[in-house]
Amino acid sequence: MTTEWPAIRIELPSWVDEVVRAHPGPLDDAAAMGLAIALARGVMERGEGGPFGAVVVDAAGNLVAPGMNRVLASGQSWAHAEMIALAIAQRQSGTHDLATAPGAPLTLVTAGEPCAMCLGAIPWSGVSRVVAGAREADIAAAGFDEGDKPAAGLESLGRRGIEVRRDVRRAEAARVLSDYAAAGGPIY
Prior knowledge:
alpha/beta, Cytidine Deaminase, domain 2
């Protein structure tokens, strides 16, 4: 007897292309963060899920992949912005190891510090840098639970040779989170 298991497919909404076009490259850290924040705000304003966005950019600042929270839209608890951006980057690059992808080294830019799950996935993705906007405290203030992270948090990535830059456009990224909480968006 053969069982047919459902395929897992996460799709980005059609409005993503418009947001990406509004942020032409090359993207430095601040510009890439602006795009990640715009994706987070787009999800929030359209009522599609949590206010989280991320992008992967190559060494020249070209966009490799956008990502935004798709947990509610997909019914998949793992569909966080960072996970989506990394998965699309891997598919676009044709490799699970982004360290060997065209345009490497690659950078993950995320509007908020990664949760425990996303933090755990970063070392295996092959990115060489992580740039974060809002801090864990900003995310917690909005009501989200980031899970049990190592005591060193983002700094733990440094032990694996992954450079970390924090607080890029933090106030703007934190504002999206506080706007979401003030609007009564679902917390999960």
